[in-house]
Each structure stands twice: as structure tokens, then as C-alpha cells.
Amino acid sequence: MPFDLVVKNATLPDGRTGQDIAVAGERIAAVEPGIAAEAGRVIDAAGRLVSPPFVDSHFHMDATLSLGIPRLNQSGTLLEGIALWGELKPLLTQEAVVERALRYCDLAVSQGLLAVRSHVDICDDRLLAVEALLHVKAAVKPYLDLQLVAFPQDGYYRSPSAARNLDRALDMGVDVVGGIPHFERTMADGAASVRALCEIAERRGLMVDLHCDESDDPLSRHVETLAAEAQRLGLGGRTVGSHLTSMHSMDNYYVSKLLPLLLEAGVAAIANPLINITLQGRHDTYPRRRGLTRIPEMRALGIPVALGQDCAMDPWYGLGGADMLDVAHMAVHAVPMTSREAIRWSFGAVTAIPAAIMGLEGYGLEPGCNADFVLLQAADPIEAIRLRATRLAVVRRGRVIAETPPRLARLGLEGRPTGVDPAGYAPRVAAN
Known about the structure:
Strand content: 15-25%
Protein name: Cytosine deaminase
Distance between the termini: 37 Å
Keywords: Hydrolase
Strand order of the largest sheet: 6-7-8-9-10-11-12-13
Enzyme class: hydrolase
GO molecular function: cytosine deaminase activity
EC number: 3.5.4.1
């Protein structure tokens, strides 16, 4: 039978080589060597890596691309970023939020990032950002899955109208219950907010994803309450603790108790390497803490851990560019986790693992899955992270929606090659 698209001679993330991927309509019809059928378009992967699309399970799209409005974050701290966002909120217009978010989605698509979970602030009584991102969600649906989290940035109890606004946002169609317990006025209020938000999620049948313990304070332990509530309410498998940076300052004995509780309760974790190592440790001189949660220890126990972008050119972070390979690259260095196995895992932490955490349907590279995938200028997942590889082609529902020429350099050196392909420097013999 003829196919709409066939990708020839691909390497897959699981190590299979010489694979052809045949697409019929919006679905993958076959993945096997030597597919000989005719196709409307044929792409020769030439042995390069084809991956499911990148997934960002933690982002703030209502703030993205707002860097410098109304000023820059001078201290580089989380708290100044929150204060700066408070100054920006009254200046927001729905048109501006929509325009910046759509521009970011354009960039994301070009980088093969086709699914994003974005927290959206609900502490503005106008719910302007909620309305804007619900509009964006509908607009980008043909090419990007946008999942929204109702996020009380100023605190569920600390902000007088947050509880009412969170219910309003969920009634409007926001997908996930969010929170920020460590920003409440007291530890008791933080714990109470975790209980209240988990009960809302249970009552509505929704997922819950809390900014949890984004702090250098080892006594910020709201993730313990989150695990207890997930266990009590049966929320296992749909509960996430994001950031969890206080864990880098906790003593090992307490962590040895805490991590099994997360596993038992079915709580997943999302670390945000670029932002966590930038915002945390700002009160340290030397030695200075790296700020990342305990990724290797959670992995070893079997707790699902994903890596998120979190911010891009906003009050908290002046860099970023929708590049999930950049996120994985930073995690490898900052944790550090430089074994071949750990680097390969990091690729999964920006693809399959966050896809599972978000509950994305039809994700993967098997027959019957959505025909969504990315052709990378790299030989395998490890090389993709090393190079932060060029996305040569991005396919959504069987249609090529973005293409980038390969990164190649011309040389004018006597006696040397005339050009360089960075992907040609893959190790010839390396343990995977």
C-alpha cells in the first residue's frame, strides 16, 4: 500500500538502526527495515536519530519573552523574579500575552518541542493570562499540545482571591491543579494549601502539579505533605512535585525517609536544571550549592523524573530558547551524571518520561502512535545531547511542519578537509 510519508534508514532512541518509518494519515503505520512501498514523500535519515517529539513538562508561557518589562531582575533571585512579575501583571494585555506565547510556540516547533505543560498565574482577578493561554491552546492544537496548570503564584492562602480564582480557572477549562506551598506565609499555611489543592484535584478528577520546596531551606518539606495527600486521596500517578530544590540541602537521613514515601505515593518529580542552578544558592558564598534536586537518588528508586525548561527570557531567567536538549545538557553537567547510561536517560527525561507524566496519548514510535517525530543531526541520543543537535525535520501528525538545514562548516585550511559536520565526530567505539 502507498504511504503518505516514509522515513528511511533511521536510528531510534532504543538503539535500533536501519529502521524505516511509514506514515498513513496521522498515524505511524509501520516501523521496520526495508519498507518498499511508494510514498507521497520520502526522507532519507541516513542513519541519523529519529525521536518522538520533545516534551516540556514545566514552563511559564504567560511570562515568556517578557524580559526587561518593566525592568530586569538585578539580584537574580527567585523572590525578586516573583516581585518583578507582580509589577508586570498590571501592565499585561491579552493581546501581548497571546502574541508572545504564539511566538514562543513557533520557536518550540522549530526545535521539535511539540508538547508543553505551562503554569498560568490565576492571582490576577481579571484572569487575563488564563483567557489568553486558553486562546493560544486552541490556536496551536494542530501542531502543539499545550496543557495548562492553574497556578496561584502569590500563594493559595496568601493571595486573598486565589482560592476563588483557581476554581474559576478550572471551570474555564484549565487542565491541572497547581500551587506554591513554600510561598505561603507560614509552613502551616503551606501544608494546608497542599491538602486543599489535592482535595480539589481529587474532587474534579484532575492531575496536580505543585511548585514544591523551591528553596535552599532544608526545612521546606512540603513534598512530604504532598506524598501523604496523594496517598490518602488515591492521586498516585497523577501527582507531581516540581523543582524540589530544598532536597539538595536536606540531610541524608531525612531524604532516606522521604524518597520511599514519594515512591509509595506514586509522586513524580520535575527538575528544571537551567533555572534551578541559576536561582538557587544566591545567598551562598563558597562552597555554593548547585540547587538541583536529587535526581540520581530518585532514579535509583524508580521515581519518575522529568526535566523542564521552566523559563525563557522572563523575570526569572534571561536566557532559554525552547531547546530541551539544552536542558538535558545542563542536567548532565550540573548533577553531574556523565555515565553513558545516565546521559542516555537524560534524553528520555525530555521525551518519553514527561510524555507519560503529562498523560499524552499516542506518543511514541510504534505502529498506531501519532505520526509525531523529529529527525536530528546526530547518531544517537547521547550525541544529540552532546551536540544539542540540529532538528533537520519536525513531523506532526504525518506532516513536515519545520525543517532546518544541517549544521555544516566550510573550512579554508591548506591540507585539511573542506568542511566539517559536527555530527561526524561521534565516538567510533564507545560503550552505550
